[in-house]
Amino acid sequence: MSQQFNPRDYITDNLDEEQIKKIKEIFDVFDSDRSGKISPKEMQDAIKKLNMEAEAQTIMDIIADADNDDDCEIDFSEFLKIFGFTATFEEDKTLDDLFNVFDEDRDGFVTYEDFYRICRKINERYSENELKEMIEYASKEEKGKVSKAEFENIVKKKYAAV
């Protein structure tokens, strides 16, 4: 029997309870059998849904590095580690890979269309308005386009004053 999820168990200086709940929603997209762990099969299915077969080995390497208990599955704590919520981005490559997942056309920006594509692939449903508001909030240099530096700030939770 799996333990009840308590977001308070994961609160840090950088993450509050609401943020933890949102991240858990993303985790649950991958954890299709609701076991509390993402199996290799579930990760493979997610890679296919996101049309990321070309990046599959990189993704699997990242997962192997995060799998602290060597059970070949990723629990929520390890998931947080993968996406940099509990560690710093010492490796620029990890951030580059994440940015490239969003920046499909490799123009150096993430646009509304990029966010829309990713949201649909992972079955996250935001309205057109919500997505556009997110892009407008994040894009400071060139409205409607999130640069790599802005994307990095978002991921690292370094928000500019509004």
TrEMBL record:
Keyword line: Acetylation, Calcium, Metal-binding, Repeat
Top-level division of the source organism's lineage: Eukaryota
Location of the EF-hand domain: 18-53, 54-89, 90-125, 126-161
SMART domains: EFh
InterPro entries linked: CALM/Myosin/TropC-like, EF-hand-dom_pair, EF_Hand_1_Ca_BS, EF_hand_dom
Gene3D superfamilies to which the protein is assigned, alphabetical: EF-hand
Example of a GO MF term: calcium ion binding
GO cellular component, one term: myosin II complex
UniProt key word Ubl conjugation: no
This protein's name: Calmodulin
Native source organism of the sequence: Tetrahymena thermophila (strain SB210)
